[in-house]
Amino acid sequence: MIPKVTYLKENWQFQKIADGKDLTEPTDNWETVRVPHDWAIYGPFDKSNDQQTSKIPEDQEYIPVDMIGRTGGLPIVGKAWYKKNIFIEDSSKNNKLFLEFDGVMSNSTVYVNDKKVGSWPYGYSSFSFEITDYIKFDSENIISVSVDSKAHASRWYPGSGIYRNVRLVETSPIHVKYHGTYITTPAVSNKKTTINVETTITNHLESRTVSVVTTIIDNKEHCVAEKTDEIELSSGENCISRELTIKQPKLWDIKSPNRYFAETQIIVDGETIDRYMTPFGIKTVKFDCNKGFFLNGEYLKLKGVCMHHDMGAIGTAVNNRAIERQLEILQDMGCNAIRTSHNPPTPELLDFCDKMGFLVIDEAFDEWRAPKVKNGYSNLFDEWAEKDLTAMIERDRNHPCIIMWSIGNEIYEIHDPVEGPRLTHFLQDICHRVDPTRPVTAGFSAGDRAVENGLADAIDIPGFNYLVGNGPNINKYEDYHKAHPEWLIYGSETESCVSSRGEYYLPFVETGTFCDENKFFKAQETLHINSYDMDAPQWGYAPEYEFEAQKKSPYIFGEFVWTGFDYLGEPTPYKTEWPSRSSYFGIVDLCGLPKNRFYAYQAEWSNKEVLHIFPHWNWNDGQEVPVHCYTNLNIVELFVNGKSYGRKEKSDDNIHTKYRIIWDNVKYEAGEIKAVAYDNNDKIVKTEIIKTADVSASISLKPDRSTINADGDDLCYITVGIYDKNGNICHKANNRVFVSVEGAAELIAVDNGDQTSLESFQADNVKAFNGLCMLTVRSTKNEGLIKVTVTSEGLPETKIQIKSK
Predict the structure, then answer these.
(1) 88 — pLDDT class (breaks 50, 70, 90)
(2) CATH topology of domain 285-498+536-567
(3) Distance of alpha carbon 469 from its chain centroid, rounded?
(4) Other residues' Cβ atoms within 10 Å of the Cβ of residue 493
């Protein structure tokens, strides 16, 4: 028998247990949901949801404060039950059945037919339980999962429930173990590559001889190597290792992410009883303490971002298209690396990184034994750290995208010269044992403490957070490199610049001194942040400072910006204000619309011609407005209604003019501003125009794709824009739009990127935020047309059609 894998998505029954009740036998009050499922994203928002009183020394907070919206102001806390009925036939072949969970948030316990099978508390871990002995064959069976999501367990929005995929897997009694292959490439060259395939086979029968066929298949489904072994299997687990050779291998890299597949077949008496497929890639990686990072022998800077795991308005419930879209947007910016902050990711993210050519730091923990929050991972560490870390690495170690294992983020043991190095060695030894081919890292805040107390010396590659300050002479990369030239150094977390898409406040100042009492930025009554990209909390800085440090020092092998996208929760710097409920750190807003900073990175990181001017051009007559331009083109001239404000190039006047062009005192007059970029031969290369917008007059609908898959999971993201009668975007428009969807899809989410909005993500209407908002439409399993209609008071109705097939 070849394994049968069934995704358990539809027709789960769900209920939350009333506050104050024990998680015991559920009531009859069930609702039908589909899995993956995040119960908390449905809201409602409330400032009392998981309100925490805490202090964060890394944020230079030494007195506890009431943090509102830290986990998004959404109802993540609670106890709940999931159950599903499933009929299981008796194959009469002593087959084995397993339930595989990619992640349950959190403290989950699995039951089959009311009997406890097992528990796994860490919500980010994948796990598998054998359920054969609990099954009633040729009968209905009840799978039940209890969840207990505790208060004060996270520093951001974690979601709640069975938020990742679940599978029922039926195998023969002789089969490859769950995550039971480990593929390494000990000898790589352009002519031939040695592939070592280590396979753990579980035999639930008596000892017997089997044939094990290992086939290497390229991405065009051609067999490029094969080996057959006759193996005497003992009862229990058997680990076997085979070596194969691939001639003229195609290497995996960020430009050509070539993958291979190792197929393992177990054959008994001429019958294939198990087939296990493992994707992998062939690459070489070198970290050089003086020259930087090399992939397949070529120098490469890591242009990375940190990413939390929520997907905006759809929450944490895993969806392939939502993940793919985020990566597409980041790749368009020039990003080539992801740090999974601060936990094991869903496996689908790594699959897409493999396919699309992203490098990944795979991170395990946000806490060790010292707590950051009352019910965080510190409560699990002693019993579960080795199990969780081993589970992550065994699951992920065949992914070619992964270049390092990260064992922690800003852990508080950094202040302990005894416990810090001891636990660093403990966790690093686990990584080396399970996967000796990759180095181990951690993201250290308070870098001097990591150095003084021995953690930086104890780890393979110390990751340093925020080594560049917003001052001309602050660059601790150089200090550490001079003091420890043997260290490999990179920015594991950088910048933390904050902004709200499309928000501008004049006059503005660069963060660098305390602007308001007890705040390191100029607070606004709107609880938004200036979009000039110069605001940051105490530890942060504008992107230019990191650009300069990275460019100056090739031994720094890259950076990971905090963060790629806005995420739910952690609304720094408005930690104590409501209704702030999501982050301001993102280069891209919560619904996937680029902020101005997107073009700063695109100009620095990509090969695209970039010309991006801001702000909008709706001001008061005569007002002096600074106009900024992100570009990688040589010379830019600014015009206001045809009047030139002069040609400019980037200059060494200050750090900002090295990476953006600035016209400080542009006098506003209604009309247009135009940026014209020239090459060195005075030829016009690119032009961008922003016009003064009149009142709202029309609605624009722009789908990210015109055709989606009729699989019940695929998504179409539709950008809604408010325009004036002349076709100009109304940058300050906040019209409420109403949405209807007909045909082979349904509306599942609306959003506008406003970090202060308390409107439901599941409503059929949403207000535009600075002229834009986003609709998320999900296909059904029916093919056909999808008709989307959007209306708004005083504006013409607008319709589009999308195909589902």
Answers:
(1) very high
(2) TIM Barrel (3.20.20)
(3) 26
(4) 28
Q: What is the CATH number of domain 698-804?
A: 2.60.40.10
Residues with catalytic roles: 410, 493
Contact 329, 373 (CB under 8 A): no
State how far the Cα of 779 lies from the Cα of 744, in Å rounded to an integer: 6
Q: Between helices 347-356 and 381-396, what is the axis angle to 10°?
A: 30
Q: Comparing 174-280 with 285-498+536-567, is the CATH topology the same? A: no
Q: What single letter denotes the amino acid at residue 32?
A: T
Cα distance between residue 722 and residue 696, in whole Å = 6
Do 805 and 709 meet the contact criterion of CB atoms below 8 Å apart? yes
CB 347 within 8 A of CB 378: no
3-state secondary structure of 483: helix
- The whole-angstrom separation of Cα 748 and Cα 763 is 8
Q: pLDDT, tens digit, for every residue of 649-675?
A: 999 988 999 999 999 989 999 999 999
The mean of the pLDDT values for the chain is 95
Neighbouring residues of 422: CB distance < 8 A, sequence distance ≥ 6: none
For tokens 């609709």, name the residue: 775
Question: Any idea which fold 174-280 has?
Answer: Immunoglobulin-like (2.60.40)
Q: Per the structure block, which two tokens stand in for 442?
A: 């951690």
Q: Is pLDDT above 60 for 191? A: yes
User: Can you spell out the DSSP letters for 761-787?
Assistant: TTSSEEE-BTTEEEEEEEE-SS-EEEE
In one letter, which amino acid is 514? F
Question: Cα 249 to chain center, whole Å?
Answer: 31
Higher pLDDT, 404 or 554: 404
Write the DSSP string, 314-362: GTTS--HHHHHHHHHHHHHHT--EEEETTSPPPHHHHHHHHHHT-EEEE
DSSP 251: P
For CA atoms 587, 593, 596, 601, the dihedral sign is positive
Closest-CA residue to 690 (of 735, 731, 643, 733)? 731
Structure tokens at 85: 């009925």
What predicted TM-score, i.e. pTM, was given to this entire model?
0.97
SS3 state of residue 450: helix
